[in-house]
Design a protein that fits this description.
Radius of gyration: 23 Å
Bound molecules: zinc ion
Number of strands: 16
Number of domains: 2
């Protein structure tokens, strides 16, 4: 990500220096302008607030040094200050107060990762403007009104391990390293399962007893077929050398297996009591779209690379949950 430095906050809008950089504070601008226009405005107008970074999913501008003190989180009269301007780096996301877009989340995650590493800030010190004083400003609005969504976003933007480089994968597979390493890096704990990214056909099997579909590579598919699962055929082909781990989780209550390439989602499910079964295969992030559907009657999650099947399941009452990953 390129961080642009061709704009600077108006000299009347902040205090130079003095910031101990202990916290990262996430805001939304609350309006429709993009990062360029926001940076222009902050440079050309004197008004009593400021920030360090502004991003819109495409561009990111830094308009103050991290160690400058922005006027961003001050409490209003009657509210008690919990996190001060001179302790925090403020990031504005150009958003009208609704959920951040995928591109904004990704860019925010990259910037937060850079700042956490640069200043030795841990995930507990990544906060909303909402958290900075007892007046609880509704900023960023969507994530102030939806604490669960904030927890999910925070897990995502403070996690470094979702994208694993091809070199790391090659080394991990050669060394027989298991998923535990990746999970530990993400600050959680989960049972050990093997990582493999040698690709190959992914098989779909069905368990008539539980009404569950499972997707797995050849070895496990063969074993499941012997133990009574019905082989339904090849669902898609996983790429050799894929870099996006696909996590599998299991709900012992409903008997449902679920796959996701979204680490934050996997971690949320794990925390909600699903068992973590590891990474049966990897996705490339660029291949064929694999769609996820949910059956509100049986509680089963289903994946299909066929748009026709997706459409017919949706017509039959399944809920379409979007593209789970690109094989
Ligand atoms: Zn704010």
């Amino acid at each position: 990500m390129e961080i642009k430095h061709d704009h600077h906050a108006h000299s009347g809008n902040y205090s130079p220096g003095g910031n101990s950089c202990q916290y990262i504070v996430v805001h939304n601008t609350g309006g429709p302008s993009g990062a360029y226009n926001e940076a222009e405005y902050a440079q050309n107008n004197q008004h009593p607030n400021s920030y360090h970074y502004v991003l819109d999913g495409t561009d990111c501008y830094q308009i103050l040094d991290d160690t400058d003190t922005a006027w961003a989180v001050g409490a209003w009269a009657g509210a008690r200050q919990l996190i001060r301007n001179n302790q925090s780096i403020s990031i504005e996301v150009c958003s009208d107060g609704t959920e951040f877009t995928g591109a904004e989340k990704e860019q925010l995650r990259e910037l937060v990762g850079i700042l956490m590493e640069r200043h030795g800030i841990d995930a507990d010190h990544v906060v909303r403007h909402y958290d900075c004083h007892t007046g609880h400003k509704l900023c960023p609005q969507y994530y102030s009104l939806n604490p669960d969504a904030w927890e999910e976003l925070k897990a995502y933007i403070t996690t470094e391990g979702e994208e694993v480089s091809p070199e790391e994968i090659t080394a991990a597979v050669a060394a027989g390293i298991n998923m535990q390493e990746y999970v530990q890096r993400c600050g959680s704990s989960a049972p050990i399962a093997q990582v493999r990214n040698d690709g190959g056909e992914v098989y779909r099997l069905y368990n008539e007893g539980s009404g569950d579909h499972i997707f797995t590579t050849k070895d496990e598919a063969d074993a499941l077929a012997k133990s009574g699962w019905e082989m339904e055929g090849i669902a898609w082909t996983a790429p050799a050398g894929g870099t996006k781990p696909v996590y599998r989780l299991y709900n012992a209550g409903s008997g449902d297996h679920m796959l996701t390439a979204n680490y934050a989602e996997a971690n949320e499910l794990y925390k909600a009591g699903w068992s973590y079964e590891g990474v049966p295969f990897f996705a490339s992030g660029e291949g064929q779209a694999v769609h996820r559907l949910y059956n509100p009657n049986g509680g089963d999650h289903m994946l299909t690379a066929s748009e026709a099947e997706r459409d017919s399941l949706e017509a039959a009452g399944w809920t379409y949950e979007g593209v789970a990953f690109n094989a």
